[in-house]
Amino acid sequence: MIREGRFGIFEGVVLLLFVTLGKIYLSYASDLIKENLSAAWLAVLLGSLIAVAWFLPLLALLSRFSGEDLIGIGEKVLGPVGGALLVGPILFFVFFSAVVVLRQVGETVIGTALPQTPLVAVLILLAAIAALTAHWGIESTARVASLAAPYILAGGVFLFFLQQPNMDFDYLAPLWGPGGKKLLLNSFLRSSLQNEMVLLGFLAPCLPARKLPAVGLWSIGLATFLLTAAMAVGQSIFPPAVATEHTFPFYEIARSIYVGGFFERLEMLFILVWLGFALLSLSVRFYVFVVGLAKFLKLPYYQPLIPMAALLLLAGALLLPDYPTTIYLDNLFRGRWAWLPAFAFPTLLCLMSLRQKKKGNAKG
Amino acid sequence: MKRYRRFYLLLLFVSIFSLTGCWGSREVDEAAYVVAMGLDNGTNEDLILSMAVADVLPAGGTTEGPRMKIRVVSARAPSFFSALTWGNTILERPPNLTHLKLLVFGQDLAGQGIGRHLDVLVRWREFRRTVYLAVAEGKAADVLAALAKIKEEDVAKYLELMLINQGITGVIPASSQFLRFYNDIRSKGETPLAAMALLRQERGPLPPSPTPGEKATAKRPSVAGEGPLCFAGTAVFKEGRMVGRLNPEETVAASFMRGDLQQAFINLPFPQDAPHEMELRVMPAGKPRLYVARAKKGVCLRLTLFLRGEVVNIERAPGARAPLSLSAAEKALKDWMERRCREVLAKAQAWRADFFGFARKARWLVPDWPAWRRWDWEAAFAAAPVSLEVRARLDRTGLTLEGNNVREE
User: What's the pTM?
Assistant: First the structure.
């Protein structure tokens, strides 16, 4: 029997929030701006609102099968094979996202702080950290995240405030960016920005069953606000033509801080904040994948899988040929099509459970 | 725990090899810190790169004299990094750009276009967007050579203070850092500005007094004394090329219009007694308000300036009869400012160079980017009627009260 630990609403919200916000510090902003120009912040807002609508069936499903995760629900609704066919791709997506995040974090560490360090050394270290946190369990990660949350969030917000002298909200015009129709289509696809909310489906057994909707709605609400605000602030500093050039957009923002001629070179603070987000984001994804795999394989423990899974994660990250390809794949799958595994598949599962009138054991 | 003891000991042993050692160390005094860099065009499209390198002497010890010495190194090469490499052949330490404060373009290069040299500056991680930009009146290499004559102990601090201070007094654009320059150069309708760097003779008397006509158009201030460099005036760029120049007085007006200026001292004729003059300290009372509206033909523009001022000097005999009328002084200030702003506006429209930020407001008038791309903003700006309003309030008279003159005769 896999023992996953238990934690409360705050820890749950923080965990989901950090995993979702981790992308701010990677290169997702450049591509969003390239696609939506001055209306990128609007695409984030509309996309997130669409994601909220997508998220409701998942919440309904988790409430219906109280105490179960997506793997268990899939099995109950569709049987072992059908469940694996529907939930398996979601789990594979979680693994793929961990691979892409690992490679992006590694490249960003090298690009911003340690240019002389070999990529493989950074990736091994990061994969080892992910493996170690998975070994300790999600409860430890959640409690550490909740302890660090105020400082990490305050650090991020502080950095944005320091940019106030450079902000010009006229860069957010023309309001509709590439045009109303294109913006709406892009926003629909960009509901993928909230794809990390599907992790709630795997973490559900760790949370108080009756509080799951609260955790989900708080997480997605806060993530919507913070992702939109971060994008709007970033866009008010660099016009679209400049913002799309950046390999590490928010690193450039931190490097441009210059208050009163003496308050500058604060990117080291940024790197600490960013590493906190990135490591939490990576660890949670890796944990969910390993535990999910153990459950699929009906193993009583997930820990023996950790070394092999970590090696697989590392191999995946090293298989990506270069950073531009990583960004391309990340933008394609995590940025535009992640709504399929994150929202459409759980919605399908919810509809099937309703059709079959199946319901889980009501556990409090 | 006991089970893992051997594993932890092994981990501890392996981790020893990851500790840093002396072989990979980079000491602070083992880099050639470039505090200013100059770019000139050479023959055959070559680039001449000049670097003012600060030799930082080790802290402590008994060495007397300045802690920082400046060496100027120049190299000619087809492009930036090859010039940097050639320059390094006469430097015993590798050049490091992380402490760069000023980037100077030679006037010839600025006139031909600096666009092709900007990519390296945004791509190379040692370069920061907080660097100040200037255009040399002549060669950038000469401006850098002048830095070696600076008597300030810390030349990096000298440059930073110089450019911040001149920005505050308004004789150079306050926002001449690379961040805004590059944002403007990459945005449709925006016009980037840089400071003008002028070489000057340190010895010799004050230059001859200019005529009133010359005074208004003078490109350099009338000063004498130590200091090989002077930062005054503005270089105006369009599409990566320097297309014009504003003198220091015009720069003050332009800075007010851009909302960059913190204060300026202005002298005006005393309203009730024309031959005498008064001096005012003028500050912005708020950000300038820009308004753009579509008209039947093109656009119409409106700019409102909000100023507040303080009387700091009135050239008249103590206890002279007529006290200053603040409303008359306000009107004089408004008239002066409007005249100056009109001159700058006329130049800007002639160059089709909108450096006031009207284009940013115009973006809100179109629904989307396809419409913005179609709009010939430059032509619209050049032909637009500009309504200018200066709202000035003189509410302080320094440490002397006006109108309280008690006379004994």
Answer: 0.89
